[in-house]
Amino acid sequence: MTLTKEEFKKRLKEKLDRHFEENLSQASDEDIFACICSIVRDGYSSKWRRTRIAETTNQHKQTYYFSIEFLPGTLLKSNLLNLGWLDTVKEAMKELGLDFDKIAAIEPDMALGNGGLGRLAAAFMDSLASTGYAGNGNGLRYKYGLFKQKFVNGYQKELPNDWLQQGDYWEVRRESKSVLVRFGGHYNMVDDHGWMTPQYDGASIVRAVPYDVAMVGYRNGLANTLRLWDAEIAPEDELNYPSIADRRKVEDLTSILYPDDSNYDGRLLRLKQEYFFVSAGLQSIVNYFVKDLKGTNFEEFPKYVAVHINDTHPAMAVAELMRLLVDEHRVDWDTAWDITQKTMSYTNHTIMAEALEKWDVNMFKELLPRLFDIITEIDRRYVESLEGKVDGGMIDRTRIIKDNQIHMAHLAIIGSHSVNGVAALHTQLLETEVLHDFYELYPDRFNNKTNGITLRRWIQIANPELAKLLDKTIGSKWRYDSKEMLKFEEYYHDTATLSSLTKIKADNKKKLAKVIKEKTGIVVDPDAIFDVQVKRLHAYKRQTLKLLHVIKLYQDLKAGISHPKRVVIFGAIAAPSYVFAKQVIKVINSVADMVNNDPEIGDKLKVVFLENYNVSLAEQIIPAADLSEQISTTTKEASGTSNMKLMANGALTVATMDGANIEIKDAVGSENIFAFGLDKDEVYKYYANHSYHPRDMYEKDPVMKKTVDALIDGTIPGCQSEGRALYDNFLGDNEQFLVLADFEAYLHAQDLAEKVWKNKRQWAQKSLVNIAHSERFDSDKTIERYASEIWHLDKVEIEDKA
Ligand SMILES: *Cc1c(COP(=O)(O)O)cnc(C)c1O
Questions:
Q1: Model's pTM, two decimal places?
Q2: Is the minimum distance from the CB of 538 to ligand 1 under 6 angstroms?
Q3: pLDDT tens-place string over residues 700-709
Q4: I need a surface site. Which of 106, 121, 544, 632 has the fewest CB within 10 A?
Q5: All CATH 3.40.50.2000 domain ranges in the chain, comma separated
Q6: CATH tag, 508-777
Q7: Which residues are catalytic?
Q8: In testing the pocket of ligand 1, which one of 112, 422, 621, 642 has its CB within 8 Å of the most ligand atoms?
Q9: 237 in Cβ contact with 217 (< 8 Å)
Q10: Which helix (H) or strand (E) holds 227?
C-alpha cells in the first residue's frame, strides 16, 4: 500500500484534530509522535487481521519462538520502513517544518532483554514476517525493562527503566486470550472416568493476560505477532477483594527483567517467570489448535505447530506440553512424547557452564509439583531406554535429574528433535566438547545456524546514506535480496564509489561526534580512527584487553611515540551483581578521565564511555565506526552479532578467531580483517595442562609489564582498589580469559590497522569488501535455514493491499 506525502499530511492533521484538538502549530512533539504511531497502526491493522485469518483458513504451520528476552529497540522507524513509508514520511515532515529524527527519538526503547540473546530474538521476529513465514514470539511483558545505566563518579548506577509509563504505542491487550497459570500447592492423582487425573489443592492461580505487538513484514502483506504475557490477579481472587499489596505481589511476577544472562539472583522468582510464560504460551497454542485448527486430533499437532526453545530459560516447555497433552487432553504418554519431540527444537547459546541452567530439586518441586513429577518420569524413561545399550557413565552424565538438580539443557535436548549452535565453531564445540555425549547418542539432532542481523535496521534505518550508495551502484534489489550486495565488490577500484564511502563514514562520524559532545561534553576529532567496542560488559568479552591497549597508547604518546589520532568508544552494561565487570567500568572511566584531561594528549587520543548502551545508541554508534573490536577469548563467544552489524556498516574488524568472527574472515578474506590471538587448540591446551602462567609473561615482557603496572603504580588517579583488582586478576594462574596471553598479538594487530589507516583508499576498499559480504549474515537467510531445516514451514502468501 502506498502513502503519498499529501495523504500523510492530511492524516496527521486529522489525528491531531481528533485526538488532541490541536493544529500543527500548537501540537507538542509528543502529540505528533503519538499521531504518527496511530497512522502507522492504521497502516498495518488490516495486514495483521488478514494474516491471522489466512493462517487459520489455509492451516499454515506456525512457529512460536519462546524467549525470555526480546530486544526490539524502537519500532516506529522499522514499522515505517517495512510499510514502505519511511522516506515519504521523512520528506512530508520536512515540508511541514518538523524534525522527524527528533520526534522519532521520543519513543523509549523496548528493552526487554540484556543483549545479544534478546536482540537475536527481535531480529528473527522481523525476518520471519519479512520472509513470509507464520512465526510468532512468546515472552514476558516486563514492567521495567533493562535498567538505565548511569555513571556516578565513574561507577555504574542502575536506575529503573519504567518504559511503559510513556505508554506503549504498539501493544494490544487481548483480554479474551487470557489463561490461568498454577503455582505451588499439592496434588493427588484420582481416577476420573478411567483416566488418572491430578486433583490440585492449595495452589495459587495467576491470570496471564497477553499483550500482542504486530511484527510487520518488509513490504509484503504479513504481520505476525509478538505475544508478551502480563501477570494479573486471578478472577476468583478478585472476589475476595484483594488489597493493593495482594495485587502487587501477583503483578511483581512480571515486574523486572533479570539483569543478567549468566548468573541469577532471585532464583525462585526467575523460575516462576519462566514457568509463567511457558505455560501461558503453550496453553494459548493448544487452545488455538483445539478451537480453530484440528480439534483434539493431537497427532497432527507437529504438522501445524513448531515451538522453539531459545536458550534454556523456556526448556520446561517440554514438560509443560506433556502435562497439557496427558493431563488436560488425555493423550497417552508415548503418543504425547512423540508429539512433544516433533514439536520442540532448541538453540544453545553458550558453552559456559554457569549459564546452563540447573534448578534445585526442592525448590522446583515446591513451586511446580506436577511438572516436577513429569520431568522425573521423562528422566526415568530416558534412563530406562539407554540401560544396557550404553555405558553407565554416559547415562549418569546425560540424565536430567542428578545431584539434586534439574539440568534444563538436558531436558531441552532429550525433548527436542533439533539442537543447534549459533556459529560453526560453537556448534563444533558443542559436538566435540560440551554436549559430546548427546552428540554420540543423537548425532542427527545437531546442526548449526549461524546468527544473523537484520540489515533493514542496521543499514536501511541506521545508515540511510550507505543504503542510497548501494542503490546508486548496484540497484535497489539488495533491499529485498541481500545476495545482491556481493555486486558491490565490483566497485573495488571505482574511485568515485570509494570516495562516497569515505564521505558517508565521515558524515556519520561528525554526527556521532555531536552526540558524544552532547552526552559527555567530550570533544572528539571526526578525522580520528573511531575504534568501537560495544557489547555487554563481561570478562570473556575482554574490554580489559582494549583497556590495556588504551593505556599502552597513552604511555607511547607521553613518551613521544606517535600514533594516528584515535577515539576509543565503549558502550557496555554490567550486571548489577557482577563485581569484576563493575570494577572494569570504573577503571575504564578513570583512564578516560586521565587521558581526556591531559593537555599533552589533546585530541591524539580520546576515550569515550557512553552510558546506557542499548539498541538506539547502537544505531548511532555503529554507522560511525572505523574499527570493530571483537576480541573475546577464543571459544567463549558463541557467535556475536555486533561484529556483523559493524562490518555491514563498513568497519574493519580486529578479531580473535572466535564465534562468527571466523566466518567473517572466511567471507572477506584474511587481508580484510585484522585477525590475531590464540586459536581454540591453544586455549584448550592451556586449560588442559594448567600451563597458563601470566606472571612469567609479564616478567619477561617489559612493554606488558609497564602497561599492566599502570594499574597499580599511581599512573591512573581515582581507581586504586579497582586497578589493583584488575592487576591481580590478570596475573593469576587461574585467569581463564587469558588476557595477557593475547596482549602482544593484539598490539601487533592494532599496529597493522594503523598502517592501513594511513592509506585512505586501501581502507575504503577493505571497508567496501566488508559491506558487500555482510549479506552472509542477513537474518532473513538465517531464518530461511531455520524454516526449512528445523521448523519445516511453508510461505504464507498474502496480497499487500490496504
Ligand atoms: C547487537 C547487540 C548486542 C550484542 O552484541 P555482541 O557484541 O554480539 O555481544 C548487545 N546489545 C545491543 C543493544 C545490541 O544491539
A1: 0.97
A2: no
A3: 999 999 999 9
A4: 106
A5: 59-74+109-451+785-791, 508-777
A6: 3.40.50.2000
A7: 349, 535-536, 541, 641, 645
A8: 642
A9: no
A10: strand 223-233
